[in-house]
Amino acid sequence: MQYDPSQLAALDAVLRLGSFDAAARALSVTPSAISQRIKALEDRAGAALVIRAAPCTATPAGARLARHASEVALLEAALARDLGQPAPQARLRLAVNADSLGTWFLPALAGLDLLYEIVLDDQAFSADWLRRGEVSAAITDHARPVQGCDAVPLGRMRYVATCAPEFHARHFAGGVTPEALATAPLVQFDGKDVLQHHWLRRVTGKALHPTSHRLPSTQGFLDAARLGLGWCLNPESLAAPLLASGALVAMLPEEPEDLALTWQVNRLVSGALAPLTRAVRAAARQALLPG
């Protein structure tokens, strides 16, 4: 079944921008034209594609069709380049964990003729975006390939448990013991973030649940630790200068936490995304520990 490119473009714009009016402005048409194109596309697909709310979101069928349109655009752009023809700039939707984005991943995106839409999610959940068909590639902690995807091991991101010297003196004067860790407040990215709790269980053998701050920012984690709000696991590459200067201290330097990362790509577009995969692997080799 073939779909009208203008209708697919309307669907992409509505879902990406969140409204029919914004899609109309982006495509230089009227909102009525966008509505007509979406209605025609829904008639052809035989299903509702857009949940008309504020913002507009995709139904499962809409998300699948939007991914199809994105994949076709990626394949057509790759074909044009292979034939030495001007290639249209395709849009690529990725799921990436915040710490990778905040440390080593962005340089891999430079120099490739793509438009990126990056979804932030915990590495333990980013594979779900692939399973739902909402992204074409993801950084995940799942070593096993998601169905229909190729999996490329990248290496291990090392984290160190850190806190401010004053915080250490206040909460860990008698040592970084299970009793002290049970009461010292920690910093957590969000409700999905269990990295600190995994570390606690590994080093203490106990399921501890201290009070926590919620702070969804990689740089914010580092700043929160430096300012004495709590302790947390920070990427070693980010924490190293502050550890060297004494602004942070490593709580148990002999107990780092290593997180194995994998690049997963939808197999249908893996060929079209081969240059990006090579760039991601090169960036990972420079920044991560061998797997």
Automatic annotation (TrEMBL):
Gene3D superfamilies per the UniProt record, alphabetical: 3.40.190.290, Winged helix-like DNA-binding domain superfamily/Winged helix DNA-binding domain
Do the record's keywords include Iron-sulfur?
Answer: no
- Transport as a keyword? no
Q: Name one GO molecular function term.
A: DNA-binding transcription factor activity
Keywords recorded for this protein, A-Z? DNA-binding, Transcription, Transcription regulation
Record's InterPro entries? ArgP, LTTR, LysR_HTH_N, LysR_subst-bd, WH-like_DNA-bd_sf, WH_DNA-bd_sf
Name the Pfam families on file: HTH_1, LysR_substrate
UniProt record similarity statement? Belongs to the LysR transcriptional regulatory family.
Which superkingdom is the protein from? Answer: Bacteria
Residue ranges of every copy of the HTH lysR-type domain listed in the record: 1-59
Q: What is this protein called?
A: LysR family transcriptional regulator ArgP
